[in-house]
Every structure is written in C-alpha cells, then in structure tokens.
Amino acid sequence: MSRLASLNRRVLTVVLLVALPVLLLGAAAVIGLGQGRLREAQTSELRQLAAYTAAALDAYVYRRILDAALLARVPEIRRAAAAGNDQAFDGARTSEIDRQWQADGAAASARLGVLATPPSRFLADLVAHDSIYREVLVTDRYGRLVAASNITSDYLQADETWWYNAFDNGRGRISMSDVQLDESAQIYAFEVSVPVYAPSSEEVAGVMKIVADSREMLTAIAGLEMGATTEAIVVRPDGSIVFRRRAHAPADRFFGADLLRQRLEERARTREAPDTWSYEAQSDEGTRRVVAVAPSQLTQSFPDLPWLMVLSAERDELGAPFRSLVWYLVLVVFLTAVAVLAIALWLSLRLAAPPIDPAYDMHLVERAQVRRVGEE
Fold first, then answer.
1. In a domain, 27, yes or no
2. Please, where are the H alpha helices in the chain?
3. Within-domain flag for 175
4. CA neighbours within 13 Å on the CB side: how many for 346?
5. Same domain (yes/no): 250, 289
C-alpha cells in the first residue's frame, strides 16, 4: 500500500476545515482593517491640506488688503483726496458731471483733467506694470473722482456700496467684495476699498478702491495637491463657486453642494465650532470623491465673505496604494495555505502509520542483548 493510500483523511479534513477558514477570515480582516486605516489616514491628511490651503488663501487676501492700505498712505494719493475736498460740494453740478461722464467718459475726463494729474499717472503706471491690479481709483470725501488709473464707468462713486462701506460715515474702514465676473475684461476679480486719510491728520479725506484679478489666487492654492485627481475649490455656503482651477460660469455649483449645505445646517443647529470636516459625494462625472472642507477665517473680518475651502479627490485614487499591497498579501496567504496543506498532509501520514507491536519490540531487545553477550 502506498503512503498516499494510507492517509488519515479524517485528520486531513479536520486540519483543513479549521486552519484554512481561520486563515482566510484573518486575511479578510487584515485587508479590511488596513483599507479602513489607510482611508482614514488619507482623509485626515486631506482635511489637514484643506485647512492649510484655506490659511494660504487667507494670507494671500490679507496681503492684498495690506497692499491696498499701504497704497492709500502714499503722500500723492492723500494730497489728491484732500485737494478734492477743497472744492465745495455742489450736488446739482456733480450730478450733471456724472451724467456727462457716463455718456462720454473720455470727453468728460479730458475736460476735467482727472486722468492727467500726477496721482492718476502714478496709478496708471501701477496698473500697467502689475497685472494683479485691473483698476485703481480715488475719491474725495464726497465720492467725487479725483484720481484713477483709467476711465471709470461713472464720476460720482458715493452711491456705490463699496464706497459707503469704506467711508463709514467718516470713520473709515476696510471693505472687500466677493469675487465677481468682470464682464468687460472677462475675468474674475475682487474689490478692496480702503479709507484715504488727510496728509496731516487721521481725518478720512476720501476712499480708494482697487480692482484685483483673482487669478493669482491660483498661485496660493494650485500647488497644494495630493494627487492627480485632487482639486481645490473655493465655494460659498450655498455651493456656488468663488474660484476654481477649471473654467466655470457664475451659475455653476459645486458637485457636493447639497451635502455641504446639510452639514452646515447641522453644525449651525449644534453650534459646532468652525473646523474641518469630510464626507463623500458623487461628482458630475459619476465618480465617488472624498471631500474635505475647511472654513476661511476671512469671515471673521468680512462677514460678507463666508468662503469655504473644499479639497476633493477620487476615492479610487486614495485607495490605489493599498490595492497594490493587496496582491502581496494574497501571495502570502497563498503560500501560507500551501504550508498549511503540507503540514496537514504530513500529520495525516504520521497518524495513518500502523502501530508498532510491543511484543515485537521486546523480541528486538532480547536479540540485541544476546548479540552483545556473544560478542563479549
């Protein structure tokens, strides 16, 4: 009878039924646990990156505000605003000039000489040599235009919201607008309005407005990405897009807007402190994406700017590193299963061997003793 024919099939079956299921269940548990831990770690990293990107965006905007405030401190700008106030305000005449300006700005500006003054030439040079600035204008305390980098749409600015907010009834404060599409230039831009103080005092002599191209925001957030599918988007609480790398229309909405609004409403009800959070949503292309949200701190200074930094990445990309390791784990499980099978075969063969007769053993011992006596 061959060795294979003498297998103890009961032992082999018991070992395989006990060892292989445990091995497979253990491998499945390890894979599931590892995948969950990796996804949790990468989601946490995505949230941290969203917070860091939001901080970079805030720093960029605050630098632009600081630049505007410093520009308003230039002596020529301060003198221009103060000189405008030397002329008594005549409402009827100012309204007439404003109508003429709106009808033909070039002729009206040439007649008044507003764009030919040294402060206007200074602002024109600034806009010409710095692509961030699209337009800079200065008014006196009545809203009349006293200097500008180029021809503006109107002469009297006192009826504009930005002017009213920055002048603040003579107290003066910094005002910033949301990002909006500039129809004439076909670019997304934001406005920073700051008070201009008199040369020899802290009295508000006028207001300066800077229209800045928002595309440079890309330099603050575009490089902060984890992978090929990661995208940074600045959105509002209603899901409308403030800024993104790809082209978008004003009516476009962030793909996870509904879940975003729900989460914001939940946080408002529970009075949770502003912090980063994450969730999963389906993109417009049909892929599942992990979304991390971090609120901008600009809201604390500018309540009209409730921006949220959103970073999203495809879930499949986040799980790609683990999937490559799964094949190694499958190989280990296969080799372990082969080893278990070999051990089961060995045990079954050992236990299937016929038992040794004790009498036969005693006979062998006696024969050995007789041989030893004969040799002596």
1. no
2. 9-71, 75-85, 91-103, 105-112, 118-129, 161-167, 217-221, 257-270, 298-301, 315-352, 358-375
3. yes
4. 6
5. yes
* Residues 211 and 82 placed together within one structural domain of the fold: yes
Residues 186, 136: one domain? Answer: yes
Identify whether the C-beta of residue 24 lies closer than 8 Å to the C-beta of residue 333: yes
Listed residues 298, 317, 336: the one ending a domain: 317
Range of the domain at 254: 37-57+225-317
What residues pair up with 294 in beta bridges, in sequence order? Answer: 309
**What are φ and ψ of residue 329, in 5° steps?**
-65, -40
Q: How many separate domains does the chain show?
A: 2
Domain boundary among 189, 217, 245: 217
Residue 205: CATH number of its domain:
3.30.450.20
Q: pLDDT of the chain along its 376 residues, tens only?
A: 444 445 556 666 766 677 667 767 776 776 667 666 767 777 888 888 889 888 888 888 899 999 999 999 999 999 999 999 999 999 999 999 999 999 998 888 888 899 999 999 999 999 999 888 999 999 999 999 999 999 988 999 999 999 999 999 999 999 999 988 776 566 788 999 999 999 988 899 999 999 998 877 766 666 555 567 888 889 999 999 988 877 777 788 999 899 999 888 888 888 776 688 889 898 888 888 989 999 999 988 898 889 999 988 888 776 666 566 666 667 776 777 777 677 767 766 666 555 555 554 555 555 556 566 555 5
**Of 281, 221, 255, 250, which Cα lies nearest the Cα of 61?**
221
Residue 137, C-beta contacts closer than 8 angstroms, at least 6 positions apart = 123, 145, 147, 148, 149, 152, 157, 208, 209
